[in-house]
Amino acid sequence: MKKFLGILALGLLFSNLAQGESLLPKCEGNDEKITSFSVKHFRMVRKWTNCHGTTISPKGAKYVGEFYKGKFNGQGTFTGIDGRKYVGQYKNHKKHGKGTYTYANEDKYIGKWKKAKYDGHGTYTYSNGDRYIGEWKNGLRHGQGTFTYASGRVEDGIWKRNKLLKPKQ
Length: 169
Fold this sequence. Notes:
Layout: H1 2-18, H2 39-45, E1 51-56, E2 62-68, E3 71-79, E4 85-91, E5 94-102, E6 108-114, E7 117-125, E8 131-137, E9 140-148, E10 154-160, E11 163-167
InterPro entries: MORN (IPR003409)
Keywords: Repeat
Pfam families: MORN
């Protein structure tokens, strides 16, 4: 019976994580229905730590997610006023870890981030149908990767700073 309860508890825990829900408590003074920027709210956000909340920038961008010492930290969703959107992990207010970024022009990157730059394995799909799947470093195609053009042409091999160095034979 204890084993069953343990498995049930783990299942509930991971089902919440899979749905994107935070296990952190709600931030003190958080108003999930906030629709515009306020200085009072901003001052409160700067104090939020180890909690989950919602904030809006002076220009109208919205962040819903986890905070640590007043910064985006952990899982979160950022939505810009121009239509861009990032859903993923943050560290010290920067995209860091796994995440999906959709640009206003419908380009999309799904993969790993390091200090707000593509870094590690990821897929960038361009709005024109081109696609790169492979390794990134410092925001550039770098390492093993495949660039497939919408026309069907393929460039596969080793990349360095966005240039194909060694095409695969």
